[in-house]
TrEMBL record:
Organism this protein belongs to: Spermophilus dauricus
Main location class: mitochondrion
Lineage of origin: Eukaryota, Metazoa, Chordata, Craniata, Vertebrata
UniProt-annotated location(s): Mitochondrion
Name the record gives this protein: N(6)-L-threonylcarbamoyladenine synthase
Cofactor note: Binds 1 divalent metal cation per subunit.
Catalyzed chemical reaction(s): L-threonylcarbamoyladenylate + adenosine(37) in tRNA = N(6)-L-threonylcarbamoyladenosine(37) in tRNA + AMP + H(+)
Signal peptide: none
Cofactor needs: a divalent metal cation
Database matches in NCBIfam families: gcp_kae1 (TIGR00329)
Single GO MF descriptor: tRNA N(6)-L-threonylcarbamoyladenine synthase activity
Assigned EC number: 2.3.1.234
Amino acid sequence: MLILNKTARVFFKPSKRKVDGFLRSFNFHPGTLFLHKIVLGIETSCDDTAAAVVDETGNVLGEAIHSQTEVHLKTGGIIPPVAQQLHRENIQRIVQEALCASGISPSELSAIATTIKPGLALSLGVGLSFSLQLVDQLKKPFIPIHHMEAHALTIRLTNKVEFPFLVLLISGGHCLLALVRGVSDFLLLGKSLDIAPGDMLDKVARRLSLTKHPECSTMSGGKAIEHLAKQGNRFHFDINPPMQRAKNCDFSFSGLQHVIDKIIMQKEKEEGIEKGQILSSAADIAAAVQHTTACHIAKRTHRAILFCKQRDLLSQSNAVLVVSGGVASNLYIRRALEIVTNATQCTLLCPPPRLCTDNGIMIAWNGIERLRAGLGILDNIEGIRYEPMAKVDISKEVAEAAIKVPQLKMKI
Ligand code: KG4
Ligand code: ZN
């Protein structure tokens, strides 16, 4: 397998025999022509090795995923070289499984689409190197994919959504609000000034030692918080949402994390327990952090909707808000957003939970979208580059508009 080394920036070629053997297992016939567009998508930007084969009508022909969550939960976070090694060990099997499940031969593929940014350099390198080797062997076009664009456009695979629409991406690595005007036309309205909400929830879950909790031991931090919060009372703690005075659409979560840290320390003292043991008030803390996170996200999104409507960037009566990314699978946060979309006559759409978290389908689908639009398809893979998701950042304009958001009752 070709491996991109982050520091040395060199490629290590896998043996040709290995890739040839891999292709032979599919009865590969170079030069065969097929009419339907079919894309193989490969995702390795963080801690999931995923692949999928999707056709132009949105049919998922085959899918496979290997999650590293359990390993990283044990080490208390992602260690990039460990993630890289796990991707190396699994990528061939995962791509093979997705292709086998699809029942098509590699020669039937119209293109190979792979996440090339953003993400962990060591992890991205494994997917990219493997894909380039396949592209070279199969003589297929290559489509470099921006992970967040793929999250943003996934909804068009499951629902009939026309451009423009507003998208809120909330995950472990990202937090942004953007107006999607086309397959590769994004206007950035706001982003997190520090960490992403999933990262904050993961840190709080780790600080609460939720992997030791019998009900949450195999859950991601955010999922564990959502699960525990159902048993807690958010009113036991009074926490102010971040950035209340900043009338823009930016986010911040590290201050909230520190506030929660202080609460945990205080509770450990009160309950007389050591760091690393489970607090009796863990569920109340989970409920409070989840509620504050939901209110903060809802308020910034509410402002973004008002701004877009004020500037006629979104339809007055048919506006759509799409929420995606790992944190979007949180039903409490979705309900907070529902309160906002009901108050602004917008339609709230979320891909199903398995398409909110990282997966190969969204990468393959983004490849299909790009093939259909004729955008970013490379026949020559030398010197691959990729532009940022949102080339136009209008977050300053949003701040200048200083829209005062009406208070909504967050009875979730
Ligand atoms: O989109 P994703 O799979 O990977 C990134 O691109 O970051 O998102 C993973 C993040 C993790 O931080 C995880 O804790 C969070 O999404 N997450 C959740 C839930 N499920 C996953 N956060 C809140 N509630 C959930 N149910
Ligand atoms: Zn993601």
